[in-house]
Amino acid sequence: ASRNxxxxxxxxxxxxxxxxxxxxxLIGLGGVIVTQGLLAKPGLPESADASRWRPVVFVPxxxxxxxxxxxxxxxxxxxxxxVGVGALAGRGLRTxxxxxxxxxxxxxxxxxxxxxxxxxxxxxxxx
Length: 127
Prior knowledge:
Blueprint: H1 17-39, H2 54-87, H3 95-116
């Protein structure tokens, strides 16, 4: 999507500089992961229990829940939902760790995006 944006230079960045940089970084990381996968020794497949599918289901689901809830519920509740649904991907659910993670992520998100960058993101829902 950013192919037609001006790239600029490192000193004078255009609108397409960061998207293009992130694209190349993700391509590089993908290449490293593929290389590691190809060089890994093939082992016996793990048991076919349902718990190994939990991360595959709950991590994307948590991102979708966040994306669809942030506009109506605000960043605080959307982040709590993100962390809560994402925590279901793990086998051992520790309530205190999940709560602390949610609180720190909420503080970081509000500090960076609302206060630091001045984005007009709703913090709390308006009922």
